[in-house]
Amino acid sequence: MRYPALYSVILSFPLLASCKSTVDQPQSNIPPSSTQQATTPEWLAGDHHIHGKYSARWDWSTTPPTPILRGDAQYATAIYAQMAKHHNLSWMVTTDHGGPAHSKVNLHQAYPELVASREATPEVLQFYGMEFDTPGARHCSLIIPHTANEAEQLFRIEKNFNRREVEPNSVPRDTNAFMLKALKSMQAEKDKPLLIVNHPARLADKLASFKKVTPEKLKGWQDAAPDVVIGMEGAPGHQANALNPNGSIKKSGKRGGYDHFPTMGGFDQMTAIVGGVWDRMLSEGRHWWITAASDSHMHYTEGRTDFWPGEYSKTYVFANKQYADIMQAMRDGKIFVTTGDLIDSLSVEVKSNANLTANIGETIAITSGGDATVRIRFHDPDNHNFGRQNPKVERVDVIIGNVTSGDEPDVAPVVHRFTPDKWRVDGQYGVIEISLNDIQQGHYIRVRGTNNADELEPEIDPPGEDPWSDLWFYSNPVFIILN
User: Fold this and answer.
1) What is the total count of domains within the chain?
2) Is 13 among the domain residues?
3) Which of 26, 84, 120, 433 lies in disulfide reach of 309, CB 3.0 to 4.6 Å?
4) Average of per-residue pLDDT values in the chain
5) Which residues form the signal peptide (predicted)?
6) How far apart (Å, rounded) are the C-alpha atoms in residues 352 and 365?
7) For the chain, which ranges sit under pLDDT 70?
8) Interacting residues of 205 by C-beta distance below 8 A, sequence separation 6+
9) Residue 203 contacts by C-beta under 8 Å, 6 or more apart in sequence?
């Protein structure tokens, strides 16, 4: 879809010209309302992986190399904020790529533009961050806490640890040992950032054949910085790769830019396969969360592969609309994700026979031999999404796995499948209930749903698949532990 009228409004903003200037000492922009105003927790949609014009390419004929702005991505931060607002997002994160001495580009150019964009579009909370060029691996979304020192904090982390900061001599930094050093430094920060692993299995050439990013590395990273490394993109960006600029299908286009082993229902194989990497992480009791993002560089209507933030993928966080609360809710796993606005609200409540409850991202303790009830409520909005369709949830799967003390899960997760005739309707919500009896060990419970009832499991996405025809939502887990 094209947005000529909205474009004209955005491009007329006076602040875009002022953002081109550089400053020596960027000033933070923290409105009192963003940190002090009491609000009610709700599901807030956002996007943590967005590239603007400071995702540069480089002129290697100069010493040092000169950044070429708009080299890899096109838009100013203010445009993204306006488009995020248009697509019903409450928060976003700017995550430009790094490069040689890019820390100075972020500090002196990207950050002042972010400050101006916050003032222009206060309805969208705009976090500062970058796509961290991960030592010994690929990419992660690095999200910086919203404080008076946010500009200096990112400058320091990028300068000291970003793999590409020292190109063309990045080899000494390109090791997992250096990544662990970086993570231990981040874990020691007073205001700890967040790190989400982006498109983790994009380099895999077949099922479970992981390159650069492996389950072993993921576990090691979280062990080194448990308050920083919180999870991975379940649904990667570049989902418009199979769309031509006029919206027709490009038969050669592969969703997510996964050119080797494809996505499955638009999700990375580490998430999509029951009993796969994600379930094995959860079976260890790890608080390993999934997200969804646009990875937007340039909109598909202008010849690239991307949707706008929130146009197709959304990460919902249950929080007050405040920077600190959103960040803490992400750390706590109070997250569900959806594509194509299939749903916009989700509850996965576990209630014990002692009337204790836990929901998405939480843990409930139950006496051995006790019972519990799982109650799922989801809202399928009765309106058109940004693909001009009104998709319906045709199946919901409840996945229950064991939490074990060993390296491997001793029992594969159980999947309960529900079609519309198997759930009840409560106003605008679908409701599903499951009883768990005589609980003898720890469990995790997660939920997913789709508009495609014919696929019992997410199937490999073929080239040329219309992303709007194959939609899914996923919850993060609720954990049960024994007293």
Assistant:
1) 1
2) no
3) 84
4) 92
5) 1-17
6) 8
7) 1-38, 406-411
8) 211, 260, 261
9) 138, 210, 211, 212, 213, 260
